[in-house]
Amino acid sequence: MKRTLAPTRPVAVRIAEEFDRFLGDPLDPTSRLSLRTIMRGDEAAELPDAVTEAMGEWGYAAHLVPRDLGGALGSPETLLTLCRTLSRRSMTVAVAFGSTFLGANPIWLWGDDEQKAFVADQILQGSFGGLALSESEHGSDLIATSTTALPTPGGHVLHGTKWPVGNASRGSFLVVLARTRAQPRQLGLFLVNKSRLDPATWYNEPSIPTLGLRGHDVSGITFRDCAVPASATVGDVSDGLGHTVKALQITKAFVAGLSLGAGDSALRFALDYSRERRLYGQNVYALPIIRHQLVEAYTDLLIAECVAAPVARSVSLAPERLPLWASVSKYIVPLLVDDVVRGTSEVLGARSYIRNGVYDGAFQKLQRDHAIAGIFEGTKQVNLHMIANQLPDVRRLALGGASTTGGTPALFEALFSRVADAPDWKPDGDDLRMTNRGLDEFSQGWPATADEIHRLATLADAPTGLRAIGAAVDRLTGEWQLLWSDIERVMDSGDLVSDPEGFHLAHRYCLLFAAAACANTWLVNRHALDGSFHRGEWLAACLQRTLVRLGALRYVSYGPEVERMMLNYGVAGNAAG
Q1: What cofactor is needed (predicted)?
Q2: Which residue range forms the structural domain that includes residue 109?
């Protein structure tokens, strides 16, 4: 899918391309971050020094620190794109730095000037950090947290074990969630500078052997009446749970970059292999079923990207929408990329299982690494619960006509642009909410989106793909109506979060959200990006693929023109890495 870019490429794209060039050819063993180096680290379960040195030389960590604190963190889309670029080579390295951002994020949102300066200095000097939430007995049930932070005249005393925690041993700082009172929700966040603790009052738990992300520090930390000063308290000492839930909205929006990068590489590996591998007297690529599987994988990757980009941009454009949108992205993007990985593994066949050979055996590492994407930062069930809990209000406003006027909502012009930079993110915890309060432009704006597509179809110069797009849009409109009806039916006998069907309805909502994201990506950019993007065959494929997932369409036959367009772009464009 060739595309014509605006005269000035978005900053996020240019920075990511600069980073990728700096790292060098991943197939060249002498490059700064080659697949061979990554695979050796994976086999040894280590993060090679050469990797951290390369990241430090380029200044990747600076993009985790806001500009007003001396870093380079500006547009949220830049951080998403950098994470994607790094994850193409190694999710392990991307997660190590992602865990540091996870720990720093509550400080950017609620920390005082001293805390911000300390964490910024640690990160810019090359140190890692983390967020210590989980406990072995309670997992994601944060309300049941048993680690305590009892008040003393000089601050608090921490007691308990946090496990598992990313960068718990490697990190120089941790932000720890602990109980401050006996009441269930009386939890606080505390910034722990490990170098200032009494060594007799804490120790790290051993690293955990994991299926994937070998080399990432997944361990724990135990506190035994460990004193921390009053200056360690982050924000409101009694609102640590609320701070945590809100802070995770930000990081969920960026986790999609991990999945997109893994999906990019999976598709690239499979494409290259299919063109080089010969079976039955021809390239594997010549087999229709192989091309079909590759197109399906690429279509899933496009859908995932169409969700991830606007949700990441909403961090600075519409942070009040993140309680719903971030959970949708966190649920659906890893789910789609799981299918990308599964489909491309079938193209690779036995080579997907071998620890050397094709791309130095990087595909089997990718499979193992991405298995965690749907688990950390909230499992699929946790995110579906958060979505289901908000759907009754979303439905009420959707049926009450709470859509903005115009062919596409005004906010969409900024959210979905692929040629304009998103505003810089200026972290402020007061911008975040616990729920969307029923507001959701994706669903509530769907009637206007559908009307605009049908209007365009009547024009004399309508793009060639609009007939198939219009047919898919009509089916999707029916699926939205069916979803609202089913939500009402389940609500009549209870609520969505206590009925397993409510989770299925949340899943269906996520698929329809993704379809709306694809449609509006096309509507907003159809004049700026011409050629095959403008014609819209890719959009028709994305909408039809979503209808198959919804059970509203049995099968999608893409045809040779769509195959050539999408797979040639996959080789030459974004998925090529």
Answers
A1: FAD
A2: 11-124
